[in-house]
Amino acid sequence: MTKRWSVSPVSLLILAAVFFVATEAESQSQGITAEELATRANIVAIGTVRSMQSEWSSDRTKIVTKVTIAVDQYLKGSQQDRTLTITVPGGEVDGAGELYSHVARFRQNEEVVVFAERDAGGTLRVTGGEQGKLSLTTERFSGKRVVGEGELLEVFSTRVRGAVRNAQ
Questions:
Q1: Residue 114 to residue 127: CA distance in whole angstroms
Q2: HEC string of the chain?
Q3: Which of 70, 73, 102, 115 has its CA 20 to 30 A from that of 16?
Q4: Sign of the C-alpha dihedral, residues 63, 101, 121, 52?
Q5: In whole angstroms, what is the distance from residue 46 CA to residue 73 CA?
Q6: Which pTM was predicted?
Q7: Do 46 and 136 contact (CB within 8 A), yes or no?
């Protein structure tokens, strides 16, 4: 069965605008460091993606996906919540899909480090776009967990905690 995506003219304009702005911003920036992300974020958490549910926004003008993460460890923020729900733009609902560039993308059962901040309505969003979510992997021979391009999780965690301490 082939999936058919339909995109409204308004969504197409939004996508074009987002792509243009994101492309311009990307071409001018050199990236955000983990320390900068940690300072801006309300929460920095390590965990596993347990579910992803796409739905229309309350005004039905765009599709968003709610990503639920089972938290193993907090590097910043709430220590009590064992799950976080983060809202990201895009997704698919009833055959209609929206895809945004420079947005964090999650996969079911993916282990991640996520930097998140609350918007004016209290919804958690990824801080720093696609840079605010890092995948975790396990080194084949040592069995140690690594972040992104190969930094040991324990070293990364120490750096982030240090940045959080220094910012307070």
A1: 8
A2: CCCCCECCHHHHHHHHHHHHHHHHHHHHCCCCCHHHHHHHCCEEEEEEEEEEEEEECCCCCCEEEEEEEEEEEEEECCCCCCEEEEEEECEEECCEEECCCCCCCCCCCCEEEEEEEECCCCCEEECCHHHHEEEEEECCCCCCEEECCCEEHHHHHHHHHHHHHHHC
A3: 115
A4: positive
A5: 5
A6: 0.79
A7: yes
Average pLDDT in the chain: 85
Categorize the per-residue pLDDT at 26 as very low, low, confident or very high, splitting at 50, 70 and 90: very low
Q: Which CATH class is domain 9-167?
A: mainly beta
Paired tokens of 84: 């976080």
**Which range is least confidently modeled, 7-16, 106-115, 121-130?**
7-16
Cα separation, 34 vs 11, in Å, equals 32
d(CA 72, CA 38): 17
Q: Where are the domains of the chain?
A: 9-167
Q: How far is CA 83 from the centre of its chain?
A: 14
- Check whether 118 has a pLDDT greater than 80: yes
Phi and psi torsions of 140, nearest 5°? -60, -45
